[in-house]
Amino acid sequence: MKKVLMLHGINHNMFGKRDPVQYGTVTLEEIDSELQALGRELNVEVESYQTNHEGDMCLRIHQAFTDKTDAVLINAGAWTHYSYGIRDALAILTVPVVEIHMSNIHAREPFRHQSVFAEIVKGQICGFGVNSYLLGLRAAVAAIA
User: How far is residue 145's CA from residue 54's CA, in Å, rounded to a whole number?
Assistant: First the structure.
């Protein structure tokens, strides 16, 4: 069975509590549950990981390389816009990486318009709330060689 890793970034443990205008009221657990259900439909195993520590995120990405994970989904939150460390870790991967955002980052504050990951990911899906995750999983599975 193919394995897809879902990486949740900084502050995502607070989904359901923070800024409902941008992120709605869905919790991280609900997002992961929907990904698991879709994963079963698509016949892939989905593992989710969340951290508020940049170095831990890099280590988990390194582990994905070592474990030969088949695809990676990442919503790095604010790290998307400035973390060259996470970018460099993602660049090590030789599998499809799909960048995901619940909100439309291009319709928000100017600093959010830039993704330091954009040049190295397969694609970016943003602005569809929880559906961004589900679309991202479908795209990642389609991109697995």
Answer: 29
In the set 62, 101, 106, 133, the catalytic residue is 101
Instruction: Kindly give the parts of the chain with pLDDT less than 50.
Output: none
Catalytic: 101? yes
Range of the domain at 45: 2-143
Contact 7, 74 (CB under 8 A): yes
pTM of the model: 0.94
Q: Active-site residue among 8, 12, 23, 133?
A: 23
- Structure letter (DSSP) for residue 61: H
- pLDDT for position 19: 73
129 — alpha (psi -120 to 50), left (phi > 0) or beta?
left
Segment holding 136, helix H or strand E: helix 130-143
Find, among 113, 65, 111, the residue nearest to 88 by Cα.
65
- State the CATH number of the domain containing residue 86: 3.40.50.9100
Distance of CA 55 to the CA centre of its chain: 16
Overall number of domains in the chain: 1
Based on the residue annotation, tell me whether 12 is a catalytic residue of this protein.
no
